[in-house]
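pasting for ref
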Amino acid sequence: MEKLIITRPDDWHCHVRNGAMLKTVLPYTARQFARAIIMPNLKPPVTTVAEALVYRAEIVQAIPEHLDFTPLMTLYLTPSTTPQDVKDASENPYIVAFKYYPAGATTNSDAGVSAVQQIYPVLEAMQQFDVPLLIHGEVTDADCDIFDREQVFIDTQLSAIVRDFPALRIVLEHVTTQAAVQFVTANNANIAATITPQHLLYNRNALLVGGIKPHYYCLPILKREQHRLALVNAAISGNPKFFLGTDSAPHLTHLKENHCGCAGCFSAHAAIELYAEVFEDNHALDKLEGFASFYGADFYRLPRNTGTISLTKRAWTVPEYYGEKQNQVTPLRAGESLRWTVE
């Protein structure tokens, strides 16, 4: 196949930051996707409807004039979040979900939740008002191996949430393990998951073999090959519980490459092209449209997009970086060739 036309996709998990970084990275998301769920883990975090509307206005201001793009806003779930906050969010058309970060799990997650029981009244309100819960599914216990954090979270926290709030719509974001795939598959239609391009393309060897490569460092961390294969099988299965969420997470190059690094892969520059490679390699290009364009919209009870995008089988080389030097971001696959081009 030399050309593929699909319904314009959406990104159901995306970081676009704010300030100068927002202006650098947002056009790449808006070029491919009609909508994107915007993560709220800024400094300070976006915790109220009023703060989300201010952030949304900044995003809208940064959308290039020739592009049609809709940001879908989320609120950061903290121990101070109240049921009234949930009700307020449910009544605002620009807010689509709350994001649950276990405290310390990833970038700018210090304001997150330390014990899930402390937010049970809020989860009850989310179930009542039908506001989805988006979860970064990892424990942060110091004695838990980093490669086991997702599975332990499922066993010790997510299972209880699903049991206690059976009508709550939940997205386990950026799943990375066979256990996560099995959990999502086995549970009811309220439970879904997003899958990133890096977790479909790479296992932990990409990060660790031949020296640590910071631009493959993300959280949850890349796992063994058996887990990557489980994710690929879920993505190409046609199961509507699994859909596209890039978790594109830009960091300034000098911060990614410093002594401690930053967690996150910037993939917005070539997101759909990266997914297309995975689906093509697994003889499943016919399943890409559902994964990228239909299943997420259906889960969030939003209309499917009516426009299309075209991908052509034409190789191109990813630049070494995007943005001006003081605002430079190194993309996933920098300096490497990609097989597909978005027209």
